[in-house]
Amino acid sequence: MANSAQARKRARQAEQHRQRNAAQRSTLRTAIKKVLKALRAGDKTAADAAYKAAVPVIDRAAGKGLIHANKAARHKSRLNARLKAAS
Question: What is the predicted pLDDT for the residue at 29?
Fold first, then answer.
């Protein structure tokens, strides 16, 4: 357990950051899954719309340091490749 006031404050901040990161990570994963679900269903227009909605979410996660920039680029690239293959 934290003994100093500074350590207690850092523990509080760490918990807030952990919860915020978990929420943003969940939003990111949900956005990616929506694209994949629309592709599996064969709905091209819904997949396009989901991809357009997912790209800013992915970029925001990379900008905030939640995921690495290369990981964000990889997700976008693979989703886009699947979209192109589906059409």
Answer: 98
33 closest CA partner among 10, 69, 58:
58
Q: Read off the tokens for 37.
A: 């679900």
pLDDT of residue 61: 97
Q: How far apart are CA 79 and CA 50, in angstroms?
A: 10
Instruction: Enter the pTM of the model.
Output: 0.88
Distance from C-alpha of 82 to C-alpha of 35, rounded to nearest angstrom: 10
Checking if the pLDDT of 87 tops 90, the result is no
Check: CB of residue 18 under 8 Å from CB of residue 54.
Answer: no
Paired tokens of 17: 């950051």
